[in-house]
Structure formats: C-alpha cells, structure tokens
Amino acid sequence: MESKKRQRASYAAALAAVTALLLTACGSSSTGAANNGGGSAGAFPTSGTGEVHIYNWTDYIDPDQITAFTKETGIKVVLDTFDSNETALAKLQSGATGYDVVFPSDYMVKQMIELKLLQKIDVTTFPNGGGLKTTMQGVYWDPKREYSAPWMYGTTGIACNTKAEPKCANIKSWHDWFTVGLPKMDSLKDQTEVVSAALRATGVAAADLCTTDKSKYSAAADLLKGFKPAVIDSDSGIERVIAGTSNVRMAWNGSTHRMTEKVPSVEYIYPSEGLNLWADNMVVPVGAPDLDNAKIFINWMMDPKNAAAESNFTGYDNGIVGSDAFMNASMKSDPAVVVPADKMALISPTPACDQAARDLYTQVFTTWLGEQ
C-alpha cells in the first residue's frame, strides 16, 4: 500500500509539472540555470579518440550533426537503433555492453535506474550542464540528474492527412481512432502508448493509467480486438505518410511536424480523452566501453546550437536554455509542436507504472499483436 501511495504521489508531482513544461515550448521564454561551465570542469574529459557507440530511436538524430561532432572532436559515432523503450530495455538486460549512450524515455529511465542498468554521470557538473531548463530539473525519473541528460520531449497523438482521407478529420478521440476502421491506418508498435490510449478510450482517467484493476485491462483488450491497422510499426511512419501509403497514424508530434513539411494537409489531432507527454533522455549504461567519449558526446549535444539543430531535424522541442534562438520559425508556429491553449488540459505524463501494471500492459499488448 505504501508503495502505491508513493507511486501516486510521484505521478501527481509529474502531472503538476506538465503545464510548466509545456509553457517552455518553442517560441516562449525558456528559464533555467545559466550555462556557467558546471561544477567540476577540471574532472571533465577535454578530448577523446576512437568511437562512441550510441543506441537511439530510428531517425532521431541529425546525420549532419554526427558529421559535425566527429569533425570537431575526432570521435567517430557508431549508431544502432531501436523501435521502442521495451526493445532498448531488453537489449541492456540481455547483457549488451557495447553502447556508450542510450536514449530512453522518462519512465524507462526510472526503470533502468531501479534495475541498476545505468551509470551515475552527474550531468549538472558537465560544462553545458548548467543550461537545463528548470522544467528539466527535479524530474521524477531522475530528480538530481545523476543518470540522465535531456534530449527531446513531446506528445503522442494522431496524424491525419485530411486531403487524402477527409474522414479522418472526424476523429476527435482515442475511441474514434480505435473504432473508425479507415483504410491506410498506422499504429505505433509501442505497448505503453497503445495500451494507455485504449485505457483512456474505455474511460480510465489519466491519473489511473497505472491501475492494476484487471477489469479495466479487459475492457481495453476488448476494444483492441476490433482494431486492425494496416501497419503496426514505430519506424518509417513519416515516409509512409509522405508517400501516401498511410493517411492516418498514431504519431508523435515531432514526426507529424516533419510530415507537414512535405504534406501540408496533415493535421495533428489531440484526442479528447487526453494524451501522453514524454521526455527522452541520454544515459550511459553500465559496462559502456568509453565513458569519456560518452560524456563528451552528451555535453556536445547540450550546447544550445547543437540542441537546436537536433530539434530542427527531429521536430521536437528540447530541454536546453537558449536553444530557441536557433530553432526554425516553422516549429514555433506549428500547433503540433506548441500545444494550443485549449488543448493544454489534455496533456499528462506518460504513465510510470510499477511492475504489476507493466505486466498487465504487456499482456494486453502482446495479445493484441498476436491477433493481427
């Protein structure tokens, strides 16, 4: 019981921070500590050689930035990719020790810390570690930023090409999404996003998304039985929408922004039952081959110009003070990136559930995949 009380308190604290976090979206004034060079510059590695091995989401880092990093530091970047937080977790749990930097989401950072899979790196002591926005400090998954540095943050909603599929404009909710039955629909292959959306669609409140009431998961599973999208894949969704092989997609807001750059008729839908706010991070796993290169890479990416370049590529906002000045104007005017005032109340943190709830999520998700 005490554990559940702590979990609810942690979730409530995260929920209370959502409005403040969203107010720092592109085009608004960012606040935070000055970029003052950190607290232990003498201990920070000043140069590196060899390679840095990173494990990131697909299509989630600017190739030009990788080239620039190597040119500036002499360190070659070796990139491997994953399609979900659970895939990244399984890789680390399997004993993979070849990665220096991994990019998990908020709730997964928390799990990885609990499982003792991450090294303490004390990001606030890095030369660029003083430049974190206040909303990226004191975060529930890593309150002191001992294990993680901010990468990108955003929301998960629905992308709709209203020109190619006018009927998708009628989608107003997750329940609509799961039951509309349109052709050329895509879903993320992400158990947290799919199952939490199904729970919301069947009446579960945002604050109760980590419930262990099996009847609520049964209702979500029943809803999912009739949901058979043409594609279930977290990768290549941007390309499918641009090519016209997909017209309606469960999508992250930044990927939707990138779609609109090529297909202006794509709109981002905020489902009426609410949607998840997530924040991705850079962490160093236990057993990383080159801790110094990992620190150099993370610090380089926290420079405001470099963080902005990554935002311009990915379509998401980042957690670094001063980066807004270097971000594209199109980001600052896109309602997919900057949440409209009348949609703010719909946003809540991605559920950071305990093991009992995570097991129920896994059961519902894997059963649904097996039914496709």
Report on the structure:
- With 372 residues, the chain is of the alpha/beta class.
- The chain folds into 2 domains: 2-153 and 280-332, Periplasmic binding protein-like II (D-Maltodextrin-Binding Protein, domain 2, 3-Layer(aba) Sandwich); 155-277 and 339-370, Periplasmic binding protein-like II (D-Maltodextrin-Binding Protein, domain 2), CATH 3.40.190.
- Helices cover 37% and strands 16% of the residues.
- The chain contains 13 helices and 11 strands.
- The strands form 2 sheets. Strands 4, 5, 6, 7, 8, 9, 10 and 11 form an 8-stranded mixed sheet that branches. Strands 2-1-3 form a 3-stranded parallel sheet.
- Strand 1 (51-57), helix 2 (63-73) and strand 2 form a beta-alpha-beta unit.
- Helix 8 runs parallel beside helix 9.
- It is globular, with a radius of gyration of 20 Å.
- The two termini are 37 Å apart.
- The model is unreliable at 1-16 and 19-42 (pLDDT under 50).
Offer a few descriptive terms.
D-Maltodextrin-Binding Protein, domain 2; alpha/beta; 37% helix; 16% strand; 2 domains; 11 strands; 372 residues; eight-stranded mixed sheet; disordered N terminus; three-stranded parallel sheet
